[in-house]
Amino acid sequence: MCGIFGIVTREIRNLGPILIEAGHRLSYRGYDTVGAATIPDEGEIDLRKDVGRVEEVAEKYNFSEMNGNRAILQLRWATFGAPSKTNAQPHLDSDGDMVGAHNGNVVNNLELRQGFMADGLTVRSENDGESCVHAVERYVDRGMDMITAIRYAHSDLEGDYSFVIGRTGEDCIYAMKNGSGMVVGIGEDATCLSSDLPSILPITRKIKRIYDGDIVTLWADRVEIHRVKDGLLVEREVEIIEDSMEAVQKGGYEHFMLKEIHEQPVVAKDLLHYWDNSQEVDITVQRLINSDNVYLVGCGTSYHACLLGSVYFSRIAGKVTIPVLAPQFIVQYGPALKPDDVGIFVSQSGETKDVLNAVEITQEKGAGILSLVNVIGSTLTLVSETWLPLVCGYEISVPATKTFTNQVIGFLYLAMRMAGKNPRELSILPELMNETLEQIETAVIQAGKLVNPWDNLYILGYGLTYPIALEGALKLKEITYVHCEGMLSTEFKHGPLSAVTEDFPVIFLAEPENVPLIISGINEVTCRGGRAIVVGLDDPRLKANAHHLITLPDMSANTFALMSVLPLQSLAYKMCLSLGFDPDFPRNLSKTLTVD
Fold it and tell me: What is the pTM of this model?
């Protein structure tokens, strides 16, 4: 959620194209407004910003013509203050000789704004990014140098955030990390910083990780890191990033979402290969075996993976686990946590604020913290005693696809290991995913014709497929804006059945072990004039009772649950296109939610 980028070059140059490209590479995080500023040695700061997409705002305000040797760019996802030109970032200080932008939330923003105005500072917006700038300005006006001013500002700012700031008359920019992501790049004739790697890799592959409590100063030829708590210098090693930028390009697909749907077999294979050779898996398995209560904690898509993971742990390993949404975990289980309890915290980004809040209460109670996370070096990896990577590479599209399937495979893998079974039998999954994706294409298109006219849908599952019903419904809601509810199939008759009218479509997930039960549910719908669309195996009983069958290859029940999400992802994607929407950037949503 939100994204910041800053750069310092040796010579004055045309920075506009660099800023625009950085904006495009950050745009997957979700945003409402875009802004850029160049900071001269003398004269006025060139600040250009507005509501809209990167390409729209860049064209309207001629970003491509912005010159300088220091610049800041920000993409904002609205929290404090509605999306507007005024609330867009970056923001100027009172005198206009300092400019900055942030990522995250400053939760005491209202109190700070009132204090700034009482001090005579010029507050132009409602946005908490401006509060970061004024928090520094207040101490600079008292004669402090920038590092000291940032240290004092940190004590005033409450929340989780990172910010970048610069002022005229200097040859550097500054940044501070306190909960939101930040990484620094060191090039041949420039340094840069960003909320994450994609916007840095076109400039340099040499990076330094920035951690909470770091203040960074960037000159064109060097970087210094100070600790906020005492101002002392910190040495940090340079890392070389080997990843190919192909991972953040569409690779011939129309959308990132489609590309990532078809990447699922590849990343599944990568996950299995990595985990087969990981000592951290051994540590995690033993920790789970020795634990008392085990909580599986996530939000949204990750929570759905937790639900399915809980079924796997019970069925395969005989281990009772408790899947729970992260905010509810705090109030429902937080007070009762014990040192022998363990939480597995699941997050694609590793920066999900609700999940990190749940981690915090777990730390306070002394319980164990394990995690499944995709972004290496993220906050969640830093606070976990053991973490396992999802090995998905960059997931650009806002709707999660490949990270969900790898989360599910990860839980299945751990359950098998806990049961003493050899997870190498899961090596068939990548090929089975490929076969499934090829096999379902025509049937999904036909199903879309039955579903597309409707703006109210249900997806029903049972047992292992109940979490998949929830996930499939979420995908449809995310990118088609159609109301879709995932439910336990046996609950449909307890009220929602009243929604069925002539041709009303209901999607059933028919796990092989539960076909007779699903057929009963199908007929409750069809006898009332509704249409039953079924995802299942090539079963004559399903063909006889359903209006339309999306047939999956033969497989076990455990594997069927995983594979049954693929046609739902594909259906959501195709329905989104038929409605004329962009599946990669659904309205109002963000890839990484770093706010409460």
Answer: 0.73
